[in-house]
Amino acid sequence: MPDEFGLIARLFVPLATGYPGALGLTDDAALVDVPPGRRLVVTADAMVAGVHFLPDDPPDLIARKLVRVNLSDLAAKGAVPHAMLLCAAFPHGTTDDWLDRFGAGLAADVAAFAVPLIGGDTVATPGPLTLSLTALGLAEPGRELLRSGAAPGEGLWVSGTLGDSALGLMVLQGSLTVPDEDAAFLADRYRLPQPRTTLGPRLIGLARAAMDVSDGLGGDLGHICKASGVGIEVEVERLPLSPAARRAITTDAGLLAKCVSGGDDYEIVLTAPSGADQAMGALSAELGVALTRIGRVVPGTSVTLVDGQGRALPDSPRGYRHFTGG
Ligand code: ADP
Ligand code: MG
To answer: Which residues pair with 43 in a beta bridge?
Structure first.
């Protein structure tokens, strides 16, 4: 492992070019200008080897997942990514090859999302690889999408498809066997989330409440219930599933519960007034991102899974459950 400053110069300084306030990562701190009429939306997420990823996962994908889970949080608030900071604790003995691959993954997403790395800290640790990324986004004050904005009568929508990542993890762990092509698709959805950075800011003015789905739809919706003081009904039959997930469920119906409760989707779930249906359809078509109405906001305090007729589904060994707001 090179010394700290050699590492910063080699891996990180190139990712700060184009952002004058980063001062080429040669000073103690970065300078951030916030354009008039905007405010900073700030989020951080940490990942620890053995907890959030496997120590032998590809280093470029570890870096990219770290970036993407943070950009997903910004997107869910309607914020446009602006810059990020990385605190990295690399285990003693981390090889140059590993570090270069980690840097390459970071570089790929700095470019893909046009979000420079403007600072951070680099240390060595006797413990496991520990990474923390802070992402800065910009939004119009007062128009950010919050979990607290939902009201009864609104529709519940979600972007993309749900459950791919949870099934992908099962495939990677060897507890689910599917055809090779489906396995590759599902594993990719787990390893390389696609944060809805373009969609998020476009939902401002359309959505009333929003959050990203990171811990599983059922549980995450409980947070909107609590923050907004509402209940939510989810029509399970409407959940958007990829062809690969659909095929897996055809062979084992119990996997549908995984798609409701599994995590790592990094889609945006939102509520919108019923008058927004047409605009949602137009936005979906324009961006090429599926937006599916999967339920509605009702008076109450918790999440209920319902069938096509609006009847609450009973708890069952398959995992259907009433998710509480608590
Ligand atoms: P300090 O001595 O205050 O800890 P450093 O000398 O470690 O600061 O950092 C020098 C510069 O390199 C700073 O601009 C810092 O933000 C940047 N930097 C250090 N580690 C990282 C990293 N992992 N990612 C991005 N920038 C980093
Ligand atoms: Mg300093």
So the answer is: 135
- Closest listed residue to residue 45, CA positions, set 16, 21, 74, 22: 74
- Classify 175 as helix, strand or coil: coil
- DSSP, res 92: T
Distance 257 CA to ligand 2 centre (A): 49
Centroid of ligand 2 to alpha carbon of 26 (angstroms): 9
Ligand 1 pocket check for 227: Cβ under 6 Å: no
Mutational pocket test of ligand 1: of 5, 13, 25, the residue with most ligand atoms within 8 Å of the beta carbon: 25
Three-class HEC string of 49-86: ECCCECCCCCHHHHHHHHHHHHHHHHHHCCCEEEEEEE
pLDDT for 147-165, tens place per residue? Answer: 999 999 999 999 999 999 9
**Cα–Cα dist 213/219, whole Å:** 9
For residues 3-7, give the mean pLDDT.
89
Q: What is the pTM of this model?
A: 0.94
Task: Indicate whether residue 138 lines ligand 1 (CB < 6 A).
Answer: no
Question: pLDDT tens digits for 91-147?
Answer: 999 999 999 999 999 999 999 999 999 999 999 999 999 999 999 999 999 999 999
Any atom of ligand 1 within 6 Å of the Cβ of 3: no
- List of residues 6+ apart from 317 with CB closer than 8 A: none
Read off the pLDDT of residues 121-136 as tens digits, 9 standing for 90 and up: 999 999 999 999 999 9
180 lines ligand 1 (CB under 6 A): no
Ligand 1 in reach of 103 Cβ (< 6 A): no
